[in-house]
Amino acid sequence: MPRDIAGLSVVITGASSGIGRAAALAFARRGARVALAARRTELIEEVAGECRDLGAKAIAVTTDVTDAGAVAALAHAAEHAFGGIDVWINNAGTGVVGPYQDADIALHRRTIEVNLMGTMHGAYAVLPIFLDQGHGILINNISMGGWAPNPFAAAYTASKFGLRGFTASLRQELGDHSDIHVCGVFPAIIDTPGLDHGANVSGKRINPGPLIYAPEDVAETFVALVRSPRDEVAVGWPARAAQIAYSLAPGPTEHLIGTFTRRALKRASPAPRTQGALLEPVATGRGVSGGWRDRKGLPFSARQTSRVVGIAALAGLALLLGTRAAARTRG
């Protein structure tokens, strides 16, 4: 039976902005108790205040997910405040855009530490609690980059491929525990401040394109998973299309994505190179939205057009695979 959200205790990392902030508010509106974690103390205190205004109990715990001790302290604080932890959402994430060799190796290392090791630290801290109490839901926010490789984001792709494997391995390990669930979420491109918080060494302005989804779409997916857990869930048809395409035709998919991305970067306007918020927190990017949809002046949302465009994309994929199969037959 679907679970009721009210009264559940939920830990969310990366809760100061973007998807994490949207998730905090989504769970608070439904009566959950939330423990919010991020590096920006003042900002997570602000988000916690918004959750309390909605009638929820909320605590803010300053946490750098790359620090295993800090994540363990987060778990202890949430367990002490709420008497247990029902849901743990590993949401913190970052990345580096640009040619791999043009970024300092410290930025690539930090990407792996946040995305992969940060999630591993979270699982390491909460799984003993889940096992002791006999229930719990672990949600790892992965990315469609965990299904298909992203050029000019090599460290990000490495972390997300690893994160999908890590999530699947934990799910297998916990197969005998029927009320402990491990869920992977694979969003398409999301309109969050994270697009500005990441490092950009390409010298080009990032353009996420028109098919960009709202952070609330991912937050509502988290809520749906708590009510009815599933192993893997895509958010947005581009994520599902990437999974299908790379599973069935990895070579052509890599070629198409690579060609498209290289051309897009060549045509992009110049932009300063930046380390973003990888090594140190930044003051900018405090809200749920990154403002990309407003900047682009889109008269529609990706979610509203996803059915029509998704059908067209899948039809194109079918044509690609058919052409590939025909070429093999002729060969």
TrEMBL record:
Xref: Pfam families: adh_short (PF00106)
Signal peptide start and end residues: none
Keywords carried by this UniProt record: Oxidoreductase
Keyword Oxidoreductase listed: yes
Taxonomy, superkingdom: Bacteria
Cross-referenced Gene3D superfamilies: NAD(P)-binding Rossmann-like Domain
Family: Belongs to the short-chain dehydrogenases/reductases (SDR) family.
Protein name from the UniProt record: SDR family oxidoreductase
Protein species of origin: Microvirga arabica
